[in-house]
Design goal:
Shape: globular
Strand order of the largest sheet: 3-4-5-6-7-8-9-10
Order of helices and strands: EEEHHEHEHEHEHEHEHHHHEHH
Distance between the termini: 32 Å
Structural class: alpha/beta
Number of domains: 1
Largest sheet: 8 strands, parallel, barrel
CATH class: Alpha Beta
Strand content: 5-15%
CATH topology: TIM Barrel
């Protein structure tokens, strides 16, 4: 495993982050869950932790309860880096308010069986909300010791810049982390825009249109926790570039509407060629592309099998040249 640090957090952070929105973890806390469901979830978390992954991505509506139980039973809270999120909108209203943030953090602390959160992010943004009150309430949580680092998930880099300008002008702690969609696949449509439960609001920094955002992250030293790093299975190797008709059968709806396009099929074809050349898998080629970026990036991944877990970790050691990075992303 490869680890790094972010200023403000006195822990090493694994470059591969385990995303807890998985069927095994959902099943363990679902209505009607039985002891066997919990055992399967614990077995998965044990294998992830044993492999060296110490960083776990949660949110108010996934991962927290089972992570809290697992950490309590294993006694390993201080060895884990917990990411969780707040202020996700619901079907009635936007929730990027100080009231909702304070409410959500106390729920999360209780579910996680902890008195602090390592990395706390606003799950969505409301651009109509001034950044000042948001920065103020996140600083309150920081000063109370409830959060160590904070930032935004699905926040545009311009809004993070506004928040950090406010923080500088008022001698406050700025956003130091961000979690947008990022990976080799270009996101052509917000995957969740048609989902009544989640309602869209995703922000991506992938693809040629978002080069300026990536440069901004590099220049401002903001750590990126990249979700949907394999485009919800687009680069899993489950279908090949010469059989694109299978994509609709294999990918879920958000994966298909979000990432299926001609250019991503071309990227998949190039991943297949790199994989053959280097004797690696397609997924490893796509993951290695992320890890070889010039800004500080962590890749969120949710491998469901021991073999997938092993492959994703091995991708950390794969080196790509600058020419290979550009070629995979269709820049040459």
């Amino acid at each position: 495993m490869v680890y790094t640090k972010i200023d403000g957090l006195n822990k090493r952070i694994s470059k591969m982050v385990f995303g807890t929105a998985t069927p095994q973890l959902f099943a363990a806390v679902a209505d009607g869950a039985v002891a066997e469901d919990k055992e399967k979830a614990f077995k998965l978390l044990d294998s992830v932790f044993k492999a060296g992954i110490n960083t776990f991505d949660c949110a108010a509506h996934y991962g927290e309860e089972i992570m809290g139980e697992w950490m309590r039973e294993r006694g390993n809270r201080d060895e884990c880096v917990i990411i969780t999120k707040c202020a996700h909108p619901n079907k009635w209203r936007d929730r990027v308010t100080d009231f909702d943030i304070l409410s959500d953090v106390h729920d999360s602390l209780s579910k996680l069986n902890t008195d602090y959160i390592d990395v706390y992010m606003l799950h969505r943004d409301n651009p109509q909300m001034p950044v000042g009150p948001i920065v103020e309430v996140m600083n309150r949580l920081y000063n109370e010791g409830k959060v160590k680092l904070f930032g935004g998930s699905n926040w545009k880099h311009e809004r993070i810049g506004e928040a950090n300008k406010y923080a500088r002008e008022h001698n406050l702690i700025p956003f130091t982390v961000s979690s947008p969609n990022f990976g080799l696949a270009e996101q052509v449509v917000d995957p969740w825009v048609s989902d009544a439960k989640f309602g869209g609001g995703c922000v991506t920094i992938a693809g040629p249109d978002n080069k300026a955002a990536r440069e901004w992250y590099a220049e401002n030293n903001i750590a990126v926790f990249a979700y949907s790093s394999l485009a919800r299975g687009f680069f899993s190797g489950a279908f090949r570039s010469d059989e694109p008709e299978k994509a609709k059968e294999i990918l879920d709806k958000p994966g298909y509407i979000g990432y299926f396009c001609e250019n991503n099929i071309k990227r998949l074809a190039r991943c297949e060629k790199i994989a053959e050349k280097k004797d690696i898998t397609v997924a490893q080629a796509a993951m290695a592309w992320i890890y070889n970026q010039r800004f500080k990036v962590f890749a969120l991944s949710s491998p469901g099998t021991a073999e997938q877990l092993k492959e994703n970790i091995q991708a950390l050691e794969i080196k790509l040249t600058e020419d290979e990075i550009k070629w995979l992303d269709l820049e040459v």
